[in-house]
Structures are given as C-alpha cells and as structure tokens.
C-alpha cells in the first residue's frame, strides 16, 4: 500500500524540519516536529472533498502510516480547526462534553467534542438550526457551534414513519 517514493518524500519532508518547526499540508492541517522522531498534528484544515483531489498525501491516515514506516511517532494535539471555508471552527473548550437534544423532537442529539482526524462535526447555524431537521431546535447558546451529531434517533424515527406509510 505504501509507495517507496512516498517514503522517500516523507523522510525528506519530516527531516527537513527543525524541532519546533511546523509544516502545513494543504487541506489536511499543520504538523509540528515535536521531537527527533515525532510529528504532532496541531491544526486541522478541513478540505471540501472533491473527486480529483483525492491525492495520497491529502489524508492524515496515510501520513500516519508513512510516519510509522519510518519509525516516527505521530501525536495529536489539535489546538485549532478550520472549516471548508477556512474559518476557525467554534468548539468551546470549556463546554466539551455538553450535549443537547433537538427541541423539535426530530430525535437528534448533539455533543460538543474535540476535533480530530476523521471526526465529523456539523455546524448549528445561527438561530439554533438543527443540522438534521433544519428547524430551530437549539437555544441561543448553541448558535454557531460545531458539534458531533448523533442522528440514530432521527433515523429510527424516519424508518418508523416510512413503515407507517
Ligand atoms: Zn431537529
């Protein structure tokens, strides 16, 4: 799965950084060389997935594999995350773990969680708009916050409705 050229690329790229130096991988994020043989992901940059731009280096997972191949450690200490438009994602640290249920009874549960590679966050648009039913399901203090969505309840409800019809 790992290409030899990619390993050479990784050696060149990783070792060219001084310890404390950072490196920005377009559409993925920012990495810092935190030790002789250690990279730490410190920012996440979400890129809009497009058909043609599914290049190998665009995935954090692949980078992780390369790092392992070289005997490097890959840590995560994400301090900032940016959405598709390059805007910083609002994930209030002091509210991590808070959860809420859509008041319009669509069955959606949202939770404030730290971001990480492969984690999917959805935005509660201004007005407390529920990312699943698009109704005003959340209070003012949830405006503009990026949340992890548990739509299990919403999907069950939809299934039950379809069976009824
Ligand atoms: Zn809802």
Keywords:
alpha+beta, four-stranded antiparallel sheet, 3 helices, binds zinc ion, single chain
Question: What this model shows, in words?
Answer:
The protein has 3 helices and 8 strands. It has 165 residues and is of the alpha+beta class. It has 2 domains: 4-82, no CATH class; 93-164, no CATH class. Strands 1-2-3-4 form a 4-stranded mixed β-sheet. Strands 5-6-8-7 form a 4-stranded antiparallel β-sheet. Strand 1 (22-25) and strand 2 form a beta hairpin. The mean pLDDT is 89. Zinc ion binds at residues 102, 104, 106, 108, 130, 132-133, 135, 137.
In short:
The chain is built from three helices and eight strands, in the order αβββαβββββα. The protein has 165 residues and is an alpha+beta fold.
